[in-house]
From TrEMBL:
It comes from Neurospora tetraspora. Residues 185-219 form the DUF8212 domain. Residues 15-68 form the Heterokaryon incompatibility domain. This is Heterokaryon incompatibility domain-containing protein. Pfam families: DUF8212 (PF26640), HET (PF06985).
């Protein structure tokens, strides 16, 4: 239940939380999980556990709501989806990929569409460069090269530099401790953890345009030239 204390109701985001709960109830859901109020960020242990578990939680969710506050009611998706900030934030990448059902709402909580709708799917693929196969859960994350998954995150933005790495833990199926204050070293640690669990050499293919081939293709991603060892951020994989 959403608190109705005066000190809570005046906080930014209160109405969005309230409307999310109303929408969940309308759609027959008994529970709604919202990261901004369901994670005690003052507890480093809880924050670490939550961020390391978040992809799994989204994957197991019955449905996920993407509230596009900057989508004008009645607008055509091809006109406004591309400018919606939701598609540019770091942590929302896993919210897009992990759940089987993602419902997009405009700022008045009208349904824009679901990510599985053919028309919406085309726009999302064009905006994010995320494969339709993973959006529709026709393939698993491990079917995609490390560099391709990095490409999906290359244009994403985070408020804190560490979150460029932390928001990708589920995308790369790794776990690691959170150390806020380490800055860009977090992304280096992420790459080190990925290397421990995978022999996919495409992780070193940053800074060059990539033409992704299916994993069973005769042409290997390892044929692309690489430079240096570790990238400094996902943006390094976004060369075109």
């Amino acid at each position: 239940m959403v608190s109705k204390s005066p000190s809570t109701m005046v906080k930014a985001g209160y109405k969005k939380i309230q409307d999310t709960c109303k929408m969940a109830q309308t759609r027959g859901q008994q529970w709604a999980w919202i990261d901004t109020c369901c994670i005690d960020k003052s507890s480093s242990a809880e924050l670490t556990e939550s961020i390391n578990s978040m992809y799994r939680w989204y994957k197991n969710a019955h449905e996920c709501y993407a509230y596009l506050v900057d989508f004008t009611p009645g607008a055509w998706p091809e006109l406004e989806l591309g400018i919606c900030r939701w598609f540019k934030r770091g942590f929302t990448l896993q919210e897009l990929i992990a759940p089987k059902t993602v419902i997009l709402f405009d700022r008045d909580w009208n349904v824009v569409g679901e990510k599985g709708d053919n028309r919406i799917l085309e726009f999302i693929n064009r905006i994010t460069r995320v494969s339709k196969d993973i959006l529709l859960h026709r393939r698993s994350l491990s079917d995609f090269a490390i560099a391709e998954r990095m490409l999906w995150a290359s244009s994403r933005e985070t408020t804190r530099p560490e979150d460029k790495a932390y928001c990708l833990l589920g995308i790369f199926e790794v776990n690691m401790p959170l150390i806020y204050g380490e800055g860009d070293n977090a992304f280096r640690r992420l790459q080190e953890e990925i290397i421990k669990r995978s022999n996919d050499l495409s992780i070193f293919l940053w800074g060059e345009p990539l033409n992704f081939q299916p994993k069973n293709s005769k042409k290997s991603l390892t044929e692309h030239p690489s430079c240096n060892l570790f990238a400094t951020s996902p943006a390094d994989f976004g060369a075109t």
